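Page 37, top half.
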Amino acid sequence: MLRYFVVSSRAKEVGRSVSEYEGVSGFSSTVVSLVVSIEWFDGPLTLEQKHRLLDEHVQWYRLYGMPMHSVPASWEDFLEYWDRMCRTVLEDNKATRDVLDLSNLDRPPFLRWFPEGVWKLIRPPVTAGFLWLTVGLYDPSVRELLGYRWSRPEAALHALVGRVIGLGTKLVPWRYRYHPRARAGWDRAFGRIPADTGLLETPGRNLPPLDRRDSPMHYSPKVTDRHRPTSVSP
């Protein structure tokens, strides 16, 4: 979510350049998103696990050839950076509000068969639920910035929902918890398929609607909606 906040005037107010923050915004968003989702679904991570997670993220960030001078050196430094960003730099702006506006949310791919008229009727409560789940994952300072209230009962219910989803996920076979391309990667690593097997494209069900697939903003390989990862054994 951090990447949807424009870092401009408030960054200048605290004496830091916009580019200095933009350089690690994607990195920090990825770290926090992963930690928050893991802890929401499976419970708290240990301090040692958080240190390891950050170290691994620094490693892949360096592999992309990204500038490293603004990357926090430790988990403790990262927490200070993140807290400072949330409290003194992030702004409430149109980009943020556009992301939170789900009023035109279309039917998900697996519900294309669902009558459009019925979807329009149930969309408001569905999107309200999505928004509630999203807001619950924000830092308190971010919720305050955006004007959301969050009570203790809501926090407890939100945590319970996360644990229920996490427990439900454990009923899914391990391999099928992964995207088909990631699953194919595991299969290459464990010898289920040859190591030189070509990269698997995402199934058509994961692609944007047909009328948007030519947009350069989307990753849209040439697959059919009935595509299946034939190179991966079940």
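Page 37, bottom half:
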Amino acid sequence: MDDALLVLLLTAAACAPLGVFLILRRLSMMADAISHTVLLGIVLAFFLTHDLGSPWLLFGAALMGVVTVSLVELLGKTNLVKYDDAIGVIFPLLFALAVILISKYAGNAHLDTDMVLMGEVIYAGLNTVEIGGVEIPAAALKMGGLALLIAAFITVFYKELKVSTFDGEYARLIGVPTGILFYTFMSLTSLTTVAAFDAVGAILVISFFIAPGATALLFTKHLSHTLLLALLVSMVNSALGYALAVHMNASIAGLCAVMNMLVYLLALLMGPKGAVTTYIRRKRSMRQMQRDLFLLHIGRHTAERVESAENHADEIGDHLKWDENKVRRVSRELIDQHLLHREGSYYLLTEAGAAAYTALCKRYYI
């Protein structure tokens, strides 16, 4: 498997499960904030270590993510500003400080803003680690390890995460350590964000966190199913984005993010509650109601008299207030379903149509 594709798939596997909980906790914008402010943690850790490969960069990023969450929580709890306003105040400040420090003091350290913002997964194969005689990209090891850590965290604390996500007050009452759980979760989000810099960059990582989970939630509300579906959607989108980027000779991370958005929009339109699906369902329901009304009309009047004026082909449209085209279409549909037949100028029910008429009378209490 191509090194870049491997890193993308592992990045997708790490980001998608966290993204589901971020969405359910209504922390999507917090993820956006962390994806930017961890840059300040990386910069400060680099100034201390002067080594871009140091694991302290991950620690600094995770710590800055927790600092961001803490500052937003602190500002939000004052009740002077809303939480989304607090995010809008905190993360631009911290991110701007990071960009200033990079441009001013790290110009020769290959810690440039373009790589941080956009990422370049195509270079993943240049930094490898040999394991058992096999060269494996360091980024793949990093993301694979995080994916396993996240999977273990969610598996072990699944019940606690579930109850604290949907009812935090109840979780506290039954003794769930919601504070520790929350900050551990946010620390993992920070670690995943900075580790994903090699693949997607600070700006695009938010797409990998949010879009697959949002797509999955359009199809299922069961948490375990949502997690699995988000994981599948994220990995498929990454593979499709990679293939398209190679074909177009364009940014891999950018096209992966575009693919995430396109699939989400498609799900939004074609999903169980999508706009197109809802329109089709309504049209089908309307046509079924028209067929039911036609059957009820025919059945009611043939019960009084077989050749009733109300059942005459030229008169039925006036009685139902339908135009000629609608009468022709609905009658044709019922004839095709063997519920109706025409004798001369009159519409009559078949045996199956009579049974359907009886069932409709019971359904509508006629």
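Margin note: The mean pLDDT is 84.
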